Amino acid sequence: MREATRLLRTFLQASGVAEAEADALELVCAEAANNAVRYATEAGRERLVVIEALLGAGSVELRVTDHTPGFDLPLEVELPDLDAESGRGLFLIRSIMDEVDYLRGRDENVLIARRALPRLPGRAPTARELELEAELGQMTEELASAYESLSAIFRFSTALGGSERGPAWIEKWMLELCRVTGADWFQFRLADPKDLSLRIVASSAVEPAPPLTAKAGGEDLAEVRAILTRQDVWFDRRQALAEADPLLAFGRRMSGVVHPIFVGADPTGVLTLGREIEADPFSAGQVNVIHTLADFLGIEVCNARVQDENLRARVLHRELEIASSIQASLLPAVIPQQPGLALAATMAAASEMGGDFYDVIEIPGTGTLLVIADVMGKGMSAALFAAIFRSHLRSRLDLARQPEQLLTWVNRTLFADLDRVDMFITAQLALVDLPGRQVRIASAGHCPLLLAQPGGEVLEFGSEGPPLGIEAETAYLGSALPLRPGDTGILFTDGVPEMSDREGDFYGLARFKSWWGERAGGTPPGELGRALMAELDAFRTTRPARDDVAFVIFQHPA
Questions:
Q1: Sheet order of strands, 99-104 included
Q2: In angstroms, rounded to a whole number, what is the distance separating the alpha carbons of residues 297 and 405?
Q3: Which of 237, 341, 451, 525 is the one with CA 20 to 30 A from 269?
Q4: CB distance 202 to 174 below 8 Å
């Protein structure tokens, strides 16, 4: 609108209108045109505001066509109160023009204002008239600039919350800010609240500068000083930039301002605008526009971060749901039972998805293979490796009669995949051989098997083999223990002895062995499993479980 009012003034003066009259008419035009922009309807923003000037013999008529909802022109216009937010523009137009009409239409409205043009030949303007003329010209300039700035802020605020985001969106509005403030170049850095690193996301520079870190000792750099002091940093010939400052890439004879952007107490970014003419600093009104637009931009950046975090949380939650479904599908739906052997198993995850796993597999003609495992980590990766481990294990049940050979083969097969992602699996296999009256076990870095005998004595069986995925060519060792009537054994994960109470103390293996010796004898496995979970819950009280708990209980009834 500023350019349009200037063109009007040029036309009037070229047509012989006195300078003072041209100033007044320009002010009326600026007021009417900016109201047309400010109050335009949604559809009206896409249409042009038309400004016309008709010169006649001793009079001029101004016409401004707008696309606003329109208003009813009052017969008399009073000067509004000082605290009123509107009404001054219409009062100004009424005061300057001799006649004002407003024609309302369906899609557009026309403001018509007429003024007589008296001629004063031969009289030179007085000093006061020249002073008033200069003041009026300055007021017209400031009004046009203010309305243009308000229009830019309005358009920016309406664009907030849209689907368009990212560096291209930020650069678009930086260019708009340069146009409104008369800046020649810009640079916008985003601040990471965690380490105060400042990386460029939009810049006028052909080759943007590398990232900065806002830390004590770096105050020589204007962008760093602005973040650390939370104040604008100005630069020009008198307040020169340091020789190491990356802003010198825009030139040495220039002026500008660096504005830090904070939302609450958190740094969001730093915005720099500059001019190539160092003797032409930004005005107070232009600085206010810079601050307003920067604050809006900071809020939008924070909103975008929150939305991104919410999206990542939803994706993670969905991933955990899928991983939980995978884990549930790996556990046997029914624990197989056979004469002379009673079984029970439990798996309780500390969160939505755990890494613990168990299996119970019948080996025809030999017995039952019991499996307990703990995949390092949580979530989808742990669930997938548990599924892979189960698949490999079940594919070579011909080796189940020698659990140590089965573990050796599984480790050799899975090593490359586990090593690639820096993961491992602890596991223990126990083949309960009823005809042979023994239990053959092999362990890969897992908790020991506890066997409670009828007299209350608890035997502990483990091995020194490392977890799966640590050494490719590990040859696991096995051992055999006799199985007598009344014996009750348990395979468990480290979530049992590492259950912690409110003070952070562990339940511990020694306490567990003592409890197992007292409770295991003669108690059915299902009842024993429920009692163990109740014992662990009572120990931790209200403290959430830090790790998953899984166990398999077997009993050779007397």
A1: 50-56, 59-66, 109-116, 99-104
A2: 64
A3: 237
A4: yes
Residue entry with tokens 């040029």: 10
What's the 3-state SS for 307-335? HHHHHHHHHHHHHHHHHHHHHHHHCCCCC
Question: Are residues 187 and 148 both part of a single domain?
Answer: no
226 and 194 within one domain: yes
Residue 314 lies in a domain: no
Residue type, 114: R
Q: Based on the domain organization, do 338 and 362 belong to the same domain?
A: yes
Q: In this structure, what CATH number is given to the domain that contains residue 23? A: 3.30.565.10
Q: How many domains does the chain have?
A: 3
Same domain assignment for residues 298 and 424: no
Its domain, for residue 518, covers 332-555
Show Cβ contacts of residue 338 under 8 Å, excluding neighbours closer than 6 positions: 362, 368, 434
End-to-end CA distance of the chain: 99
Q: Are residues 153 and 238 in the same domain?
A: no
Write down how long the chain is.
558
Q: Are residue 427 and residue 463 in the same domain, yes or no?
A: yes
Per the CB < 8 A criterion, the answer to whether 557 and 486 are in contact is yes
Q: How far is CA 27 from the centre of its chain?
A: 47
pLDDT per residue of the chain (558 residues) written in tens, 0 to 9:
778 888 888 888 888 888 888 888 888 888 888 888 888 888 888 888 899 988 887 889 999 999 999 888 888 877 766 665 566 778 888 888 889 999 998 889 999 999 988 663 444 566 765 676 666 655 555 544 554 555 555 555 555 555 455 677 778 878 888 888 889 999 998 888 777 888 888 888 878 788 888 777 678 899 999 988 889 999 988 888 988 898 988 888 888 999 998 887 788 889 999 998 766 678 877 888 888 788 777 777 777 666 666 777 677 667 667 666 766 777 888 888 888 899 999 988 766 556 788 999 999 888 999 999 998 876 677 778 888 898 999 999 999 999 999 999 999 999 999 998 889 999 999 999 999 999 999 999 999 999 999 888 999 987 678 999 999 999 999 999 999 999 999 999 998 999 988 888 899 999 999 999 999 888 899 999 999 999 999 998 777 767 788 999 999 987
**Is there a contact between 472 and 415 (Cβ–Cβ < 8 Å)?**
yes
Compute φ and ψ for 177, nearest 5 degrees: -65, -40
DSSP 500: B
pTM score: 0.50
Which of 4, 54, 10, 11 has its CA nearest to residue 29? 4
Residues 53 and 187 in one domain: no
Q: How many CB atoms lie within 10 A of CB 130?
A: 13
Whichever domain contains 260, its CATH number is: 3.30.450.40
